[in-house]
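Weekly structure sync, notes
Attendees: PL (lead), two postdocs, one rotation student
Agenda item 3: pending single-chain targets
PL asked that the sequence for the first pending target be pasted directly into the notes so everyone works from the same version. It is reproduced below exactly as submitted, 361 residues in total.
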Amino acid sequence: MTHEVRAVVVRETGAHPSVETVLVPDPGPGEVLVRVRSCGICPADLDWREGGPDGRFPVLLGHEAAGVVAAAGAGVAGVRPGDFVVLNPHAPCGSCRSCRHARARGCAAPRRAARPMTLTDGTELSPALGVGALAECTLVAAGQCVKADPAVSSAAAALLGCNVLAGYGAAVHAGAVGRGDSVAVIGCGSVGLAAVAGARAAGAGRVIAVDPDGRRLDLAERFGVTGTVNSARIDAVEGVRALTGGLGADVVVDAVGSPETYAQAFYARDLAGTVVLAGAPARAATVRLPLSDVFARGGVLSSPRHGGGLPARDIGALLDLHLKGRLDLGAFLGPRIGLGDVGAAFEALCHGDMPAPVVLL
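Predicted structure, written out during the meeting:
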């Protein structure tokens, strides 16, 4: 059986996202059909609007989502119809070289649905990050579903599929923030705010927010930062150093992913400190750093997927923190919109409006 659903599609590079009819097949072996309830609009979707890593069009947008399992294919274990789930783009295959060497975070062939979703003329769609969730229904591999407590709102749960997961993990996992550490977070969108929350949860002694937008800095203060640097007014590196006794931070999270912010992160850290690249860079972005500085400053330059965690494990842990009142997912939520408003939302995202909206289906 094939399901006709409304979904947000981009047909060519730079084209305006449009709501179209998409055909979604019933799940095959190891696959799950999910009726999407909420899907966040993430900055990474901007890259997929340009074709994503492989440049294939048309693209079915959306990847951070929550919904209800509508049907499960043969051999599926762990989830069943009626379960409330959070979707994730990184379900390790378990058999590639990285997985065999206990490095599932770097899995080279994460699980994806084998059966294609298509336009009505049969043209195969390229689902963003293997999810394609800006749709009333989507087809994913069973391993991409993390069972969740239905007490959590679908809008809040959806953000755990990417932004909150990546930012929180950037501080806790990749950055290995320890008690008393100083942490600077460059960029205070959803990923950066989640990094702030992660640093605070890990016991950081000092957490500094860096952003050129005063509205974002005001929001960061609600997440418990101890200091802010408005990089539109003062040099970001000098601002961080001034708030860390001239030393720089132990851990700096670049939650933007631009050449400029990465260089700021590199020089805003203390000697032998850690830089974590948490923001997704544009495909053509390049950064130039003197190799002598890389050698002399030491430390760790980390660029983890999803904050260096494992979605199947960490989504559940973050949901538990939320239910216990230790992580307010509602604070990350932007306006709620419908599928027809997605085009305007993408334009707002391009202009830096915040926070990013969540589509309710």
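Discussion points:
- DSSP finds eleven helices and 18 strands in the chain.
- The chain has two domains: 2-147+328-360, 167-305.
Action: rotation student to compare against the earlier draft before next sync.
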